[in-house]
Design a protein that fits this description.
about 70% helix; 4 strands; two-stranded antiparallel ribbon; mainly alpha; 7 helices
């Protein structure tokens, strides 16, 4: 079965490549799919939720309505994705009551801990999308591509039969070496290209999240 797998050949970028380059390309595509599922889509969801939450807070503020914990708890619902952070922050809030026309009413709510201690990029963004891992994913993929290049070169050199007294054998050996080098660079180029795409998307989405959070 392994022998049959090693005989697999496919044409990519106009070059016929074997099992090892195909395996490396397949793994990089699988990594890209994981990036889309576990980073790209969740990041877009976070941005949309942050925008909705921000609009709700600004709307309440513009109406002049007093922001009490109940109102904020409604805004920071389960749908916002920030409910657990709000719950932790709410525990640090101190309610101050005063006498208003003979009735004890809530006068103001004082924050004993800065909101930034809870609502920060690490808690709101990084932990929810495993940002630290995906920052290193392009480097891992580039490394896989480089490994594929060296594997291809080693295989090509092993198959290269240098017989100076046999021009035909020398020609065949050179052809095999060139084909192995082509396969190696196709695998490496594919991995690096996907890594660049992931890096660009990751940086753009992360900065977009940060801008929405800060605003």
């Amino acid at each position: 079965m392994l022998g049959d797998m090693l005989e697999i050949r496919e044409v990519i970028w106009g070059v016929e490549v074997g099992f090892v380059p195909l395996l490396i390309i397949g793994l990089t595509l699988l990594a890209f799919l994981g990036f889309v599922v576990f980073y790209l889509w969740p990041s877009i969801s976070i941005v949309l939720n942050l925008k909705t939450t921000t609009r709700a807070l600004v709307g309440v503020k513009n109406t002049g309505t007093q922001l009490d914990q109940d109102a904020l708890s409604t805004i920071f619902s389960e749908k916002s994705g920030l409910k657990h952070l709000w719950s932790e922050y709410a525990e640090t809030l101190h309610r101050q009551y005063g006498d208003v026309q003979g009735i004890e009413e809530l006068v103001q709510i004082r924050a004993t801990v800065p909101a930034e201690a809870f609502f920060n990029p690490q808690a709101v963004i990084d932990e929810r999308i495993s940002a630290e891992f995906f920052r290193h994913l392009p480097g891992i993929m580039t490394g896989a591509g480089i490994i594929g290049t060296f594997i291809g070169l080693i295989v090509g050199l092993q198959e290269f039969n240098m017989k100076l007294d046999d021009p035909a054998a020398l020609s065949v050996g050179l052809e095999k070496l060139i084909e192995s080098v082509k396969e190696a660079f196709v695998a490496s180029g594919s991995a690096i290209a996907i890594a660049i795409i992931i890096t660009l998307i990751e940086k753009l989405l992360y900065n977009w999240n940060i801008v929405v959070l800060v605003v």
